[in-house]
Amino acid sequence: MTSSTLLWFRQDLRLADHAALAAALAEKAPILPVFVLDEPAQAGHAPGAATRWWLKHSLARLGESLAARGAPLLLARGRAETVLPALAAQIGAKTIHAGRCTEPGLRAQAQRVHEALEAAGRNLRLHTTMILQEPHRIASGSGKPYAVYSPFAKAIFALGDPPPPLPAPEAIPGLPLPAGGETLDSLNLYPVPGEPDWAAGFSGLWQPGEAGAAERLGRFVARALGRYDADRNAPGIEGSSGLSPHLRWGEVSPGQVWHAARAAGAAPGATETFLKEILWREFAHHLLWHRPEMPDRALRSEFDAFPWVEDSRALTAWQRGQTGYPIVDAGMRQLWRTGWMHNRVRMIAASFLVKHLMQPWQAGERWFRDTLVDADLASNSASWQWVAGCGTDAAPYFRVFNPVLQGEKFDAGGAYVRRFVPELAKLPDAYIHKPWEAPPVLLAGAGVALGRSYPRPIVEHGAARARALVAFAGLRKGTEAA
């Protein structure tokens, strides 16, 4: 049988700057690209509804790009350690090239595939396609994994810029698709049968796929990067890159983003600030690789005894954007409507859930994982642990965001709140972030009936902050005593 090569796409759904694709092409043999939907491999941490919507559309775009270059994409379903060795045998492939993943379930999956292939005299070669530096190759001066972001970022910057990104190949020598493959519809990625299509409006907001990633990256570096320092914290304007969902499924590599930012000619401070955000994502994957328990358990073990107050009504109010705090509610409604939330507001909303409402951070992580189009297991869990104060590099326990002051600082004119909490749109700026303080005549004139058209605050900030500080301080004292 003529030799051929199997290219396994995982979380790297692009053709440019793709090390596994480049290695497959270097073998000078026909290539069969394949994507395997192996749902049991991520049991407990499976992609949520929003990311499955994105995945469906991203696979469609990837399939089109591959077919246009001569190598159609095979879609398969099943255990990867069964599907891939069988395909390799069918097409006579000695090697499977794929990207390396950091998620614990996908690391275990790759190991099973490796063992199954090795038993058949074949091999799996993993490449860096998702991140800048493989976590097992980056260590502190003492030889240990990094636990704090700042020295980690400094170490990555010290390595210099990543290699220039590889262009997408103009042609790929392909193989006819084997019989028995799946279609996008038969994969049932989205909508889930029997569940409402709550992402019906996403298509007007997002353009999944490599071309969409390139368009968004180009727009960001041309229009917003130069003002990134000033604008990135203002949710009412387009000051952030919006690249996170494209990075989540690898439609653009962090190396491509890095070089595009460097080449834009923006002020060095703005560029460095933006690149530090790319490195926060990198740090999250570093943490997940070395601490695979991160999505489920606090990285600081003393938090196992934290006195969370689980309250389903409070959690539901937060999820629906009905807390009575406009900046929090605007963020949660933006999330539900668009599948995304501004980064500053994510911190405010997460802090409110954990510290004002005393709900376990895992409940917030699960909600974000299901509703964010950019829900990345590493970034999502690392960020929630940072806010909750239980990560290796965490916000100080006494930092409890005041949602009113945060709203007044970052959404001073109320544009963000007015967009996503329209029942408050007619309130003057002075009361848009604290409608309960508005005089009754102003409320009536704005059509706001507190407790009916818009809820009163479900907790009072001062009392909630005091409760949180007592709980966090008690945990700290208990740790010191031990």
In short:
The chain has 482 residues and is an alpha/beta fold. Helix content is 46%, strand content 6%.
Characterization of the model:
With 482 residues, the protein is of the alpha/beta class. It has three domains: 4-130, Rossmann fold; 131-167 and 210-290, Serine Threonine Protein Phosphatase 5, Tetratricopeptide repeat; 301-481, DNA Cyclobutane Dipyrimidine Photolyase, subunit A, domain 3. It has helices at residues 19-26, 49-68, 80-91, 104-119, 149-158, 210-223, 228-231, 244-248, 254-263, 268-290, 312-319, 326-338, 343-356, 361-371, 377-388, 403-410, 415-420, 440-445, 461-481, and strands at 4-9, 31-37, 74-77, 93-99, 123-127. A five-stranded parallel beta sheet has the order 3-2-1-4-5, with helices on both faces. Helix 10 packs across helix 15 (377-388), helix 12 packs across helix 13 and helix 13 packs across helix 15 (377-388). It starts with a strand and ends with a helix. The mean pLDDT is 95.
Label the structural class.
alpha/beta
Report the radius of gyration as a whole number of Å.
24 Å
Number of strands: 5
Give the mean pLDDT.
95
Question: Layout of helices and strands, plus pairs?
Answer:
Blueprint lengths: L3 E6 L9 H8 L4 E7 L11 H20 L5 E4 L2 H12 L1 E7 L4 H16 L3 E5 L21 H10 L51 H14 L4 H4 L12 H5 L5 H10 L4 H23 L21 H8 L6 H13 L4 H14 L4 H11 L5 H12 L14 H8 L4 H6 L19 H6 L15 H21 L1
Parallel strand pairs: 1-2, 1-4, 2-3, 4-5
Helix pairs in contact: 3-4, 5-10, 9-10, 10-15, 12-13, 13-15, 14-15
List keywords for this structure.
single chain; 482 residues; alpha/beta; Rossmann fold; Serine Threonine Protein Phosphatase 5, Tetratricopeptide repeat; DNA Cyclobutane Dipyrimidine Photolyase, subunit A, domain 3; 3 domains; 5-stranded parallel β-sheet; 19 helices
